Amino acid sequence: MDLYFWIFAVMAVAAGLFTISSREPLSSGLGLLTVFIALSALYLHLHAPLVAIFQVTIYAGAILVLIVFVLMLLVSPGERMRDIQENASYRVMGGILGLTMLGLLAAGAKGVSDLICARSLPEGFGHPSGFGDLMFREYLLHFEVVSVLLLVALIGAIYLAKKRI
């Protein structure tokens, strides 16, 4: 284990604890964003740049934006803006998120290739074509089971969200 792993692992765990212990939904969302970014940095460290890109684009870019939109719809704009701006948890989470982003910038300045090419890897490791081959040849059943599970969860969420059917 090296310093890079420990920095982002501690950030992910601390942000995860903050996410589940925060009483404010928006600060909890910031904690979740920090967890996603720290996990993407750990994926980069594990020589999986494609999974790191998926982590940032899908989870941080799509799902977290959806969560923030739902939070914005639930809270009216002028409701507690002053309280939110003076909340210390937002400042702490913003500081942790800023440190995470600085860590990613430092890793980028050092060069992701230095981090990734430290060991010799099999040919095609981490490339999208290898990922597709594994997903649709060796793990096709797993992929289909997960897709059915997500469909059942979607139907259940719609059923729970509707008051009368």
What are the salient characteristics of this protein?
single chain; 165 residues; mainly alpha; 0% strand
Structure description:
By secondary structure, the chain is an all-alpha fold. 81% of the residues lie in helices and 0% in strands.
Set out the fold topology.
Layout: H1 3-21, H2 25-45, H3 49-74, H4 81-86, H5 88-110, H6 112-116, H7 128-138, H8 140-161
Helix pairs in contact: 1-2, 1-5, 2-3, 2-5, 7-8
Terminal CA distance: 54 Å
Largest sheet: none
**Structural classification:** mainly alpha
How many strand units?
0
General shape: flat
Count up the helices: 8
Average predicted confidence as pLDDT: 78
Estimated share of beta-strand residues: under 5%
Could you estimate the helical fraction of the residues in percent? over 70%
- Rounded to the nearest angstrom, the radius of gyration is 19 Å
Low-pLDDT segments:
none
Tell me the series of helices and strands, N- to C-terminal: HHHHHHHH
Assembly context of the chains? single chain
